[in-house]
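TA notes. Do not distribute before section.
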Amino acid sequence: MDGQTEVVNRSLSTMLKAVMRGSHKSWDAYLPHIEFAYNKVVHKNTNISPFEVVYGFNPLTPLDLLPLPNPQTYVHKEGATKAEFVKKMHEKVKEQIQQKTEKYVKYNNKGKKKIIFEEGDLFWLHLRKDKFPSKRKSKLSPQDDGPLQVLKKINNNAYKLDLPA
């Protein structure tokens, strides 16, 4: 699994444990409530809830109905207006995720040197035993191979290499 799924699963299991309070026999009855609660929470990356991303609004809960809403605050929207609203919401979410991704890339790449090879360049390659088991039979064998040549540049992160047989 990827890290994001593991974090979500951990959060959901923590919520489930808190709601169940020791009654371990009927955990499946609590799942819809946990799902609803998770989807209503505002997420850090998007700054809105998953319900808002999909539907364009957060559903009302019984707590939201205690003070009756002012009729002027909840305006019924036509289908085309609603669709446009959801499209704008998706653009906003996409932009927010892109900004967070750029922030994470900047933070994680701080101090790293960007190296771009061109076709014909020579370099040394480190073949680890766990990544290349057929090339590395023993941890005592030499760790580096080279000089190797770049045969074709696919993009700045992918190259076709002249690997040893």
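Switch to the second chain here.
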Amino acid sequence: MTALLAIDNLQVRYGHIEALKGISMHVDAGEVVALVGANGAGKTTLMRTISGLLRPAAGDLKFKGASLLHTGADRIVRGGIAQSPEGRRVFGTLSVAENLRLGAYTRPASEFDETLSQVYTLFPRLHERSKQLAGTMSGGEQQMLAIGRALMTRPQLLLLDEPSLGLAPIIVKGIFKALEQIRKDGVTILLVEQNVRMALKLADRGYVLEVGRIALEGSAHELLHSPAVQAAYLGGERAAAPA
């Protein structure tokens, strides 16, 4: 079976600094794949490269079997990949509804009402605040909006970069509940997440990135119970066995 996203020996540089040093990984249709690692490991660089915002120095990445090396960021979105970026980056001077409408710019107008209804069902708070300026919303509400805006493109692959960053635990729980529903709706997810435990409990598989290289990979269960992952990212505590 051909992977939905296949990355082969990907190398990305910032000038003379090699941020990604030969990354190879894949994401299959219907999966949630977690990408974890310390700050500076290269996680956001990888996401930005998949989105077409950075160009690799070497290697290849393919989506649905076709190389993305010479594909512009706008065409990547039109082709079925959407990103909810680190830091949310909503348009603060526009309303919630206007942000969502901008997210749908690549889609036929005939799809808009149905997709908007799906986003509002997933995040009722966005419906309640549809006329509110995005910049006046809480961090959690802005995160919902960033994810909702990405979903307005009707992606096959959703890239999520640190969706829990800076949010209160109760808000994080709600965000991850929404991610479970997104997965049930058939959207494949590549998740970069600082909360390693929650990420691996949601994911099917995972990769641990260290200084631009993949240090570990395996099923989410294997990584969650890996002594190396526990020591580095889970405070040395043994993960609880699944209920």
